[in-house]
Amino acid sequence: DDDDDIVQLSSHALAALQEFYLEQQQREGMKTSQGFNQYSVGSIEEDWQLSQFWYSDETASRLANEAVVAAGKGGRIACVSAPSVYQKLKEQDGKDFSACILEYDRRFSVYGEEFIFYDYNHPLNLPENLLPHSFDIVIADPPYLSEECLQKTAETIKHLTKGKILLCTGAIMEEQAAKHLGVKICNFIPKHSRNLANEFRCYVNYASGLD
């Protein structure tokens, strides 16, 4: 009988599957509800295959506020592989600064002209209108804890910034961060919405409010 070939889910597995679909529907429902903010952290879900781990709300806010202060009045801020900070900056829309997001994940293209496709493997493959040294501060979070990734991202950072750099990466990258960007570790400990195995830190090359 063909019916014998049909896989039967256990009641436990079926309940788990139903719960998953319910949560998915609830998430989508939140996104389409009137109060949904497309810039809230988590509005675009993490893709672990792209090594995406969003900051906690508190950390994203702290870094965004630091960037605004560092950029100054009318300042320009570039977020390189740091979408949670960009999203927090956009929640402050109306303040006297501008921001853009450089990201490999094209889902962030929903943010329009402020989205710039970015692949760290080609650090200077950037649009012509992204002029050298045109940003008051660059905040960057290289996707991988490797010297190659940091070195290539550093090329992008140095190309874009007028001088100020805020780097977020693993504590194990301290020596390489100093070598490639001349940045020093801060006292502030950034947190993620999910706990990471590697200790994470912030690094700057200016007198910041993160100490």
TrEMBL record:
GO biological process, alphabetically ordered: methylation
Keyword Lipid biosynthesis: no
Localization of this protein: Cytoplasm
Keywords linked to the UniProt accession: Cytoplasm, Methyltransferase, Transferase
Example of a GO cellular component annotation carried by this entry: cytoplasm
Catalysed conversion reaction: L-lysyl-[protein] + 3 S-adenosyl-L-methionine = N(6),N(6),N(6)-trimethyl-L-lysyl-[protein] + 3 S-adenosyl-L-homocysteine + 3 H(+)
Pfam families referenced in this protein's UniProt entry, alphabetically: N6-adenineMlase
Family annotation (InterPro entries): DNA_methylase_N6_adenine_CS, Efm5/EEF1AKMT1, Mlase_EEF1AKMT1/ZCCHC4, SAM-dependent_MTases_sf
Main location as per UniProt: cytoplasm
Presence of keyword Transferase: yes
Protein name: EFMT1 methyltransferase
Organism name: Podargus strigoides
Recorded name of the encoding gene: Eef1akmt1
